[in-house]
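Re: that chain you flagged

S.,

Sorry for the slow reply, it's been a week of failed gels. I finally had a moment to sit down with the sequence you sent. For the record, here it is as I used it:
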Amino acid sequence: MKKNWYIVLTMSGYEERVKENIEKKIEATGIKNLVGRIVIPEEVVLDATSPSERLILSPKAKLHVNNGKDVNKGDLIAEEPPIYARRSGVIVDVKNVRKIVVETIDRKYTKTYYIPESAGIEPGLRVGAKVKQGLPLSKNEEYICELDGKIVEIERMKKVVVQTPDGEQDVYYIPLDVFDRDRIKKGKEVKQGEMLAEARKFFARISG
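Prediction finished late last night. Pasting the structure tokens below so you have them in one place:
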């Protein structure tokens, strides 16, 4: 069954409390089977005399640093968990895509786009560049920016599509630095719980 994502705005510092209240409401009303994950996005910012380093992490990422802690260049600061197959099936497609994350100036909203390399990326798009709603992100103008803001992340990835026996498709986006060509091949069968990509580790590029 296809599910939709919904965003709930909260006051800063109350994210965990809101998440707990939603989970209690779901449990009390007996609709747990209709609701997927409730996640709280996280990020790590390292301040130094040189330009700061910012990482946008998934809610499942493990942080190895705390606020106020000194970080040296090369230290492990965060780790994304391995990617496992949610259901058994056959890999039917593997494509190169470009992940572009746009964030509003007030940092309240973000939008992530996965643009096929075959579509081409508009020249001039780079991290830190300001973008406007309606701006084409791809040369074929199939992908259009939906909000005013700036680009905070651009990354090359692999889009992997696994088709299940009942004809449904699970889509995975795997960063190139953890993509294994021997593990991911078109036509290969995968089992539920099988590892598709190893954990991704982030090391500090600056001291701060």
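What I noticed first: The first helix runs from residue 15 to 29.

Talk soon,
D.
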